[in-house]
Amino acid sequence: MKKTFLIGAILTFMLLASVAGYIGGSLAQRRWQLNWLKLGIHEPTDVDATPWFAASEQIGSSSRRYNSTLTGASGTPPDFVLASEQSTSAVVYLKTTGTAAQRSFNDWFFGDFFNQRQEAVVNSGSGVIVSADGYIVTNNHVVEKASQVEVVLTNKDSYIAKIVGTDPSTDLALLKIDGERLPVISFSNSNRLSVGEWVLAVGNPFNLTSTVTAGIVSAKGRNLNLVNNLFPIESFIQTDAAINPGNSGGALVNTQGELVGINTAIISRTGAYNGYGFAIPSNIVQKVIRDLREFGSVQRAFFGADVIEIDARVRKQAGLTSNAGVMVGSMSSYGPAKDAGIKEGDVIIAFDGQTIDGKSTFDELLSYHRPGDEVSLVYERSGKRQTVHIKLTNTEGGLGAVKSEKYFSAELGAHFETVSKLEKDRLGISGGVKISQVGQGSLRRMGLRDGLIIVQINRTPVTEIEQCIDLLKHSRGQVTVEGVDQGGRRSYFTYFSY
Questions:
Q1: Using one digit for the tens of pLDDT, what is the confidence trace for 31-77?
Q2: Domain check: are 152 and 250 in the same one?
Q3: Of residues 169, 188, 190, 248, which has the active-site annotation?
Q4: Is-catalytic flag, 126?
Q5: Could you say which of 213, 363, 373, 452 has the lowest number of CB atoms within 10 Å?
Q6: Is residue 360 among the annotated active site residues?
């Protein structure tokens, strides 16, 4: 009897001690978190200054609402529940439908590109709702080949989207669906994102809808040479949050559930996640969205020169003392850089007061501006620093917004547009017509791709869109198309038309 009583007393004492320890540890952990919050570790962003927790919440309520980015005193991992709740409803599933040519014996041996059999191709990706009335941002590569884009919300409502505009230079696209009161994601200032900060990737990998994965910011300002464009903007956020096929166009969010980037690419030998994911910074995304909504195309600003990354080799060849800044490379024959007296070999070290640590930083800062904006540049020449103020120009050398002439040919299945003065100058051509988007039609079956500038058809120089389309439609016999791609390389396409 005494033995039984003694065992019971010991067990009761141990239970009470455990409960007391748990309560004490929880209070200590909460006190630790709130103390850090008072020190301003989680300062509000420029976009959304809502308090860390609502006034109606009780301090003793579920600790998962206090979304610390640090590990708690008891060793507990950071909590991502709030961030997931804030972001998943604004990330949508995209189902794109297109067609691909199925080649036969005649295609290979007789070049019968106009009568190939077509088969349906269905792909998927992700998108992010950025307005309550149905604007959605995604990657250009998700929708560029699509004849139809279906948007499925987290509540399983489905819409057919209209493509408002695309920007191949950043690999972004803006869609519109006829919705109202839709869940919207909040934007954060991606410039304030730090390496080592926790982030979540939200999307639909492998058709697994509303998938959330966690990781940290591994690096910023990555230039991977992924964008096939004459004027690419690459300043990716690198993360080790798992990103897989189907995540493209999805959200990269911080621990408050705010958008810091659009997931775009991975580096992998297998095509699946291998620890290296890349997202377009939210500040670039916001600028592209504004331009596409207002003008239907992105208003790129130029300063009239190319810049070169400074590494050990460039520094040694140029006789520089450090790798800081970017070096001015080839100069345009016109433009604000030339007018301001900037020369090849000058080293730009600051842009509007912000230090330049590489080409991706310079390109990103430039991408925030529109033609006509005035900026200051600090550059070094022969050890001396100089400051100039220049007005950025558009692709035609002017200061206003531009809207290039575009035309769609249903028979050829492609969108065409005029070639800008800046493009002609960079590529060393005097004329031509650009294929801005190849859809389902004869041009795709011929092998012509987005961004190709057609300069000659059967040795006839191409100067106007109508002339180009007419030659492609009505030329008979063997037809040879000469084009220049975005890298300046010439190529030839030959087919037979009857």
A1: 333 222 212 222 233 333 332 222 222 222 333 333 444 444 445 66
A2: yes
A3: 248
A4: no
A5: 373
A6: no
